[in-house]
């Protein structure tokens, strides 16, 4: 998996103080997408074991306490990203105490294939669906257009 940006401290992508990772790779081609540069799977930088370890360390940090991790992109549920994302979220839930995981995807929850569904039990908040320019509304919280649904699983 490749990624574009990692913010170790972020307060705009989800509730509370968070770590945020923007991954590479998205097939949805939404009109009006703000992150077109992330569409290609081979864009950005390689997501390494050392960055995975750093994210765990940042989430365990007791000086700047993070509420959790936000995963965006690109699409963290692009089938080619799923194995790496699954390993990351499993590690967070087993090694980091009480951290929530938010994930934005262009897929609809009820359309996920089995491999993508395997990630869902580790996600606390899922925002699903493509960005629809006709339904865009800057007043919406955590989503760009009103067709997108926020699922709070926990
Ligand atoms: S799902 Fe997100 S990153 Fe992908 S094209 Fe749509 S708005 Fe852009």
TrEMBL record:
This protein's cofactor list reads: [4Fe-4S] cluster
Judged by the first EC level, this protein's enzyme class is oxidoreductase
**Which PROSITE patterns has this protein been placed in?**
RADICAL_ACTIVATING
Q: InterPro entries attached here?
A: Aldolase_TIM (IPR013785), NrdG (IPR012837), Organic_radical-activating (IPR034457), Radical_activat_CS (IPR001989), rSAM (IPR007197), rSAM_sf (IPR058240)
Task: List, alphabetically, the Gene3D superfamilies matched.
Answer: Aldolase class I (3.20.20.70)
Q: Tell me, what's a Pfam family for it?
A: Fer4_12
The EC number of this protein is 1.97.1.-
Report which reactions are catalysed by this protein.
glycyl-[protein] + reduced [flavodoxin] + S-adenosyl-L-methionine = glycin-2-yl radical-[protein] + semiquinone [flavodoxin] + 5'-deoxyadenosine + L-methionine + H(+)
Which keywords does this Swiss-Prot/TrEMBL entry list? 4Fe-4S, Iron, Iron-sulfur, Metal-binding, Oxidoreductase, S-adenosyl-L-methionine
- CDD domains per the UniProt record, alphabetical: Radical_SAM
**Source organism, top-level taxon:** Bacteria
According to the UniProt entry, its GO molecular function terms are: 4 iron, 4 sulfur cluster binding; [formate-C-acetyltransferase]-activating enzyme activity; metal ion binding; ribonucleoside-diphosphate reductase activity, thioredoxin disulfide as acceptor
Q: What does this protein do?
A: Activation of anaerobic ribonucleoside-triphosphate reductase under anaerobic conditions by generation of an organic free radical, using S-adenosylmethionine and reduced flavodoxin as cosubstrates to produce 5'-deoxy-adenosine.
| Stated family | Belongs to the organic radical-activating enzymes family.
What this protein is called in its record is: Anaerobic ribonucleoside-triphosphate reductase-activating protein
**Which organism is the protein's source?**
Gilliamella intestini
| Taxonomic path | Bacteria, Pseudomonadati, Pseudomonadota, Gammaproteobacteria, Orbales
């Amino acid at each position: 998996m490749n990624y574009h940006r990692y913010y170790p401290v972020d307060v705009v992508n989800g509730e509370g103080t968070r770590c945020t990772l923007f991954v590479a790779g998205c097939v949805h081609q939404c009109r009006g997408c703000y992150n077109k540069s992330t569409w290609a799977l081979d864009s950005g930088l390689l997501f390494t074991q050392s960055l995975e370890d750093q994210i765990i360390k940042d989430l365990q940090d007791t000086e700047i306490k993070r509420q959790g991790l936000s995963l965006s992109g690109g699409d963290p549920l692009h089938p080619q990203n799923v194995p790496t994302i699954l390993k990351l979220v499993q590690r967070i839930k087993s090694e980091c105490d009480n951290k929530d995981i938010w994930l934005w995807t262009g897929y609809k929850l009820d359309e996920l294939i089995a491999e993508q569904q395997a990630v869902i039990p580790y996600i606390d908040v899922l925002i699903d669906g493509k960005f629809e320019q006709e339904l865009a509304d800057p007043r919406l919280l955590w989503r760009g257009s009103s067709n997108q649904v926020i699922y709070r699983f926990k």
